[in-house]
Amino acid sequence: MKNECSVVRDILPLYLENMVSEETAESIKEHIENCPDCAAEFEAMRSGKTVEKIGEEAQSDIEAEVLRSIKNIRKKFRKKVLRVGSLIAAVIATVLIAGGLLLHFFPVYRIAQISLNDYYSKDQMKMVLYIGSASDRREAQSVLRLADKAFNDTRHTREENEAEYGLLARYATPTDSYEDAAYNLHTLELWSAHLEENEGWIWVYYSSETYAHLGNVICGSWRIPSLWKVEKNESGEWVVVDIREHP
Ligand SMILES: [Zn+2]
Fold it and tell me: Between 169 and which of 68, 79, 161, 231 could a Cys-Cys bridge form, CB atoms 3.0 to 4.6 Å apart?
C-alpha cells in the first residue's frame, strides 16, 4: 500500500461522514477514482454503514411493533380488569343490598336485645325476627299513635290517663306523682306487628325522658323492648290488653 493510500484510508471514515474540508474531499475523491484498492475500501465502508443503518431501522420497526403489541395487551388487560372489577362490584352491591333487605325484614340482631334475660318465651322472641306484613304494620300505627300521645302527656292525673289511654297510661307522666313535670321527649319504634283477625302482638322499642320546668330529667326509661298484646274492640279498633315488659 502506498503511503498516500494509508493517509486516505485514515481519512475515509471522516470523508464518508462529510467531515473533511472541501479541499481534502476533492483530493480523496480524485484518489479513489484512480486507486481501485481505496475505491473498494470506500465502497465496503459505505455499504457497511448502510447495512448498519438498515439494521437500526429494522430494529426500531421491531421495537415499535413490540411496543404496539404490549400496549394492545395492556389495553385488553385493563378492559378485562375493568370488566372483572365491575362484575365484583355488582356482586358485592347485590350481596349488600340483599343482606340489608334481609336484615330489614328479618332483623335477627334484635333478638340479642331481648334475649339477655329469659323473661320472654321463645315464641315471643321469634316474633321480632320478622317485622310483620305491610298491612299489619299499617294497622298497628293506630296503637303507636295513641302510645305516642300518652308519652307526651304530662298534664293529667293517673286516673285521667287510664281513662284516656287504657294500659298505655303507664307511659304518661301523671301530675299526681310528678307535680313538676313540664314536657316529655321520647322515641317509639315499631319493631314488629303480627295481627290475626281479632287479636295480635306488637313489639315496640322506646326511650322516654320527662323533664321538669328547670330542664332536669325527673323520670325516664331507656332502650326498652316491650311486647304488647292487642285486641279489636267493638268499634273495630286495636286496643292494648296486655303489656309484657321486663321489670
Ligand atoms: Zn489508494
Answer: 161
Q: Would you say residue 74 lies in a domain? A: no
Burial class (CB in 10 A: 0-12, 13-18, 19+), 18: exposed
Q: How far is the CA of 7 from the centre of ligand 1 (A)?
A: 9
Residue 26: inside a domain:
yes
Q: How many domains does the chain have?
A: 2
CA of 39 to the centre of ligand 1 (A): 7
Lowest-confidence segment of 69-83, 165-179, 217-231 by average pLDDT? 69-83
51 Cα–ligand 1 center, Å: 24
Closest of 213, 211, 203, 187 to residue 246, by C-alpha: 203
- How remote is the CA of residue 28 from the centroid of ligand 1, in Å? 9
Instruction: Determine the Cα–Cα distance for residues 173 and 158; give it in Å rounded to an integer.
Output: 8
Residues 166, 174: contact at Cβ < 8 Å?
no
The answer to whether the predicted template modeling score (pTM) of the entire model surpasses 0.70 is no
Has residue 187 been placed in a domain? Answer: yes
